[in-house]
Amino acid sequence: MVAKKVSIHTIRRDQQAPLTLILKQYPDGWSYEVQDLPSGPLPMPWRAKSGEAAERRLRESYDQAIWMITVLEEAAPS
């Protein structure tokens, strides 16, 4: 299974609202899109060849000592 929808928040700050990201397939590859922003959805600037690779890239992008990633929804591998 691959993380289709995740929540990301800082471990040390309770005041910050978590970010919600959704896995999406774009014409040039897979990436996550930040949801619920006043300006609208914001795609991450990178692309991966599969949903699994995008999840790996997302997890590598956030230091686990600072950020907590919680899987909210899973999908079948792409």
Write structural notes for this entry.
The chain is globular. The chain contains one helix and five strands; from the N terminus they run ββββαβ. The longest helix is centred in the C-terminal third of the chain and has 11 residues, at 51-61. A five-stranded antiparallel β-sheet has the order 4-3-2-1-5, covered by helices on one side. The protein is mainly beta and 78 residues long. It starts with a strand and ends with a strand. Strand 3 (29-34) and strand 4 (42-43) form a beta hairpin. The mean pLDDT is 91.
How widely separated are the two ends? 9 Å
Question: How many helices?
Answer: 1
Percent of residues in helices:
10-25%
Biggest sheet statistics: 5 strands, antiparallel
- Regions with little confidence, pLDDT below 50 for 5+ residues: none
The strand line-up of the biggest sheet is: 4-3-2-1-5
Amount of beta strand: 35-45%
> What does the average pLDDT come to?
91
The helix/strand order is: EEEEHE
Shape, principal axes of CA atoms? globular
- Helix/strand-derived class? mainly beta
Instruction: Give the radius of gyration.
Output: 12 Å
* Number of extended strands: 5
